[in-house]
Amino acid sequence: MCKTEYAVCGSPHLLEGSLSAFLPSLNLAPRLSVPNPWIRSYSFEGKEEWEVNPLYCNTVREIYPYSNSNRLLNIVDMAIFDFLIGNMDRHHYEMFTKFGDDGFLLHLDNARGFGRHSHDEISILAPLSQCCVIKRTTLLRLQLLAEPEYRLSEVMRESLLQDPLAPVLTEPHLLALDRRLQLILEAVGKCIDTFGEATVVANDTAQPQSPAVHRAKLDT
């Protein structure tokens, strides 16, 4: 495949590609497709509100389900994932309808990821930088992956060695992960400096009580 409208011609004999994984059919696992509040403008005629209004998140917070659920925190998680891989094309996300509004987000359609290893598209982090919220578990994991003994590039390199298509990612892409991770932590740091850690870092580490514990309390 070598068409003028797609920049996928070999250079000279290597060709970049992407892998796809397919979910069960909609009959077996019904899904809901939801527009991303931070959808990118796909024309030169105008900009989306978030691209011109730094206070855009205040509007999103007033809209259900972002107003009273973990959905906004999940959107921030998704933005962090997209920034790490350089995916600017997150125009929607999907959810399994069985789990309702509190279900997890399906990160489908990542084909635009790992494109330009030399470019860090900061605008992908708009949900984080504009809302200034992040899950504590997410922040702790990012901080761990920034430590020398658990560096993200090293973890990814070792993990991908088990893949039949190893190495999968080139070295520049692996190093880009470390660079982008530092940019994420810097963005979180700016939010904490501005609003305080208690406001920025959402505590999602509390474990719900088991039914047995709950019954024991009722019995007493």
Automatic annotation (TrEMBL):
Keywords: ATP-binding, Disulfide bond, Glycoprotein, Golgi apparatus, Kinase, Manganese, Metal-binding, Nucleotide-binding, Transferase. Mn(2+) binds at D109. It comes from the Eukaryota. ATP binds at S20, A21, F22, L23, E94, D109. Pfam families: Fam20C (PF06702). Residues 1-200 form the FAM20 C-terminal domain. GO terms for molecular function: ATP binding; kinase activity; metal ion binding; protein serine/threonine kinase activator activity. The active site is at D89. GO terms for cellular component: Golgi apparatus. Belongs to the FAM20 family. This is FA20A Pseudokinase. It comes from Motacilla alba (White wagtail).
